[in-house]
Write a structure and sequence with these properties.
This protein is α+β, with helices and mostly antiparallel strands and 200 residues long. The protein is built from seven helices and ten strands. The structure holds zinc ion (ZN) (5 copies). The site of one zinc ion has 7 residues, from loops.
């Protein structure tokens, strides 16, 4: 009879646990005075620790990067993927910077150009990958024309020099001719001078 009473239990109205009937009064006094049911997880926690329990287990947390209050469940996702202050790297220069500044930075950074060694054309960094996939190594008309301009300028230079060369060659031939004529004329004069003296 005593054993059966020991086995019998009663549910505590405070914590919903089965309490041996023999201990119910004592338990109820203790349970209602010291324990509190957590409204979030349903755990019985000591009343004096209830606030700590909530703060350390359930309360939203402040993001250490952006100081925003974030639900505890998603703080890791927030810091890794969503936080505006998380550090990301620029696609173009790989400089680390806060995510919130990335778009503005890449707008500028992606507009920088780099020489494609295949086609010898300056390509925007933002277009580099699509360019490299398409680049056939042939210099396109835009670059070809600027190259042709340079070649044309070079040719023009040659053409400009050529007449000068011809001119100086002509001058040289002309001065040789003059000298030759002078020599011939001189020898004629000498002959004419010499002839009469020989005649005499
Ligand atoms: Zn209880
Ligand atoms: Zn809880
Ligand atoms: Zn944040
Ligand atoms: Zn950059
Ligand atoms: Zn190219």
């Amino acid at each position: 009879m005593e054993a059966a009473l020991d086995q019998a239990t009663s549910t505590c109205s405070h914590c919903d646990r089965a309490i041996p009937i023999a201990n119910v009064d004592l338990h109820n006094a203790h349970c209602s005075r010291n324990l509190q049911k957590c409204k979030v997880c349903g755990d019985m926690v000591p009343k004096k620790n209830a606030e700590d329990h909530y703060l350390t287990t359930h309360a939203p947390v402040s993001c250490s990067l952006c100081s925003e209050t974030i639900d505890r469940d998603i703080i890791d996702i927030h810091k890794g993927e969503n936080c505006p202050k998380r550090i990301v790297t620029c696609d173009f220069c790989e400089f680390p910077l806060p995510a919130v500044d990335l778009a503005e930075h890449q707008e500028v950074c992606g507009n920088r150009t780099e020489l494609c060694h295949l086609c010898n054309k300056y390509v925007r960094l933002r277009e580099r990958y699509t360019h490299e996939a398409r680049c056939n190594g042939i210099q396109d008309s835009a670059v070809g024309s600027s190259r042709n301009v340079r070649e044309a300028e070079r040719d023009e230079g040659v053409q400009r020099r050529r007449p000068q060369n011809e001119f100086s060659t002509k001058r040289l031939l002309f001065s040789i001719a003059i000298t030759g004529i002078a020599v011939i004329l001189g020898s004629i004069f000498l002959q004419r001078k010499a002839d009469p003296s020989e005649m005499h």
